[in-house]
Amino acid sequence: MGFKTGIVGLPNVGKSTLFNALTRTAKAQAANFPFCTIDPNVGEVSVPDTRLNALAETGKSQKIIPARMTFVDIAGLVKGASKGEGLGNQFLANIRECDAIAHVLRCFDNDDVTHVEGRIDPIDDIEIIETELMLADLENINKRLKSLERKLKSFDKEAVEQADLLNLAKKSLEAGIPTREIELENEKKKPFKLLQLLTSKPILFVCNVDESSAATGNQYSKLVEKMTQNSKTSITVISAAIEEEISQLVENEEMDLFLKEMGLNEAGLDRLIKAGYDLLDLHTYFTVGPKETRAWTIGKDTLAPQAAGVIHSDFEKGFIRAETINYEDFLEHNGEGGAREAGKVRSEGKNYSVKDGDVMNFLFNT
Predict the structure, then answer these.
(1) pLDDT tens digit sequence for 294-328
(2) In what order do the strands lie in the sheet with 346-348?
(3) Cα(311)–Cα(362) distance, rounded to whole angstroms?
(4) DSSP for 106-133, written as a single string
């Protein structure tokens, strides 16, 4: 599995420029006016992982297939979106389909680029979108509670459990707290996620800074960092303008030189993707063979049969066991054969929680 991240924000904060750089395309029209992105643009990107090259070289694979991530460039939002203002209804529906939110914040001064609110204040921008999402969730919750009334009168167990979760979310929202901040017992986390509340989505704040602030951030990004210190959110600093320039470079040597000149160790987009993985607690395992070395994305604590199911559902249904090699052991012992001779190949059963970096070979009944 990969995951889908919605790129959101007020108009003219750099969403489409960032999307263009991410997907190495010009599919999203970047223009200096609100709502230039009407239909959500969707693009897939490769997840950067230096381990793939090392594994492929050791395993003498013919090709490399990285894990993939999907990004959706969603139309800009304005105040009143929860009531359908601007492109509000479409905006909210697009977010609901995403696994996570990358909220792009304007953290740069530029008189040539108009801000829809007429000022540069990323904290206020956060509050505008957060408020609209909370209002939309409250309206949704009230409708769902209304529809459950008849079943609640008959003490339907499933309805009672759902109503309890909805009321928990409602209480949080009425206190001005996004539902992602609610502390839940383990057994309630899955049914709560199934409510698909907008404010329960993991959120990554992307501070779009000027080129000179790409390495260190600036006064605006530091305000965002301070605001989000004690919340269940993440933050990364990127200059969309720099990333767009990087996306035009073909040779790795050119890219490395450009990054060095800008005082950066790696492209901001690589940091964004890694931050997204951390935000959703995603791991990567590998399969290595003469034809290909491939990365597979799974959630943290995924058990071996479900990890096998990411490759094919038959692997999960007929799962017998998984032959597993630690990434470092695979390299140290020059591949599967050497690892097997050194006793580093483990046989894991149905209750094995796959670790990040495991090299896997699944045995299953057909």
Answers:
(1) 999 998 889 999 999 999 999 999 999 999 999 99
(2) 63-65, 292-299, 282-288, 359-364, 319-325, 346-348
(3) 10
(4) EES--TTS--TTSS--HHHHHHHHHHHH
Specify the 3-state DSSP secondary structure of 325.
strand
Q: At residue 26, does pLDDT exceed 50?
A: no
The residue with greater pLDDT, 151 or 39, is 151
Query: Could you tell me which of 202, 146, 205, 160 has the C-alpha nearest to residue 178?
Result: 202
Cβ(144)–Cβ(166) below 8 Å: yes
Per-residue pLDDT, averaged over 225-242, amounts to 89
Here the tokens at position 133 are: 């999402």
Task: Look at phi and psi of residue 337 and say left if phi exceeds 0, alpha if psi is from -120 to 50, else beta.
Answer: alpha
Reduced to 3 states, what is the DSSP secondary structure of residue 195? coil
* Model confidence, pTM: 0.82
Residue whose token pair is 């230096």: 50
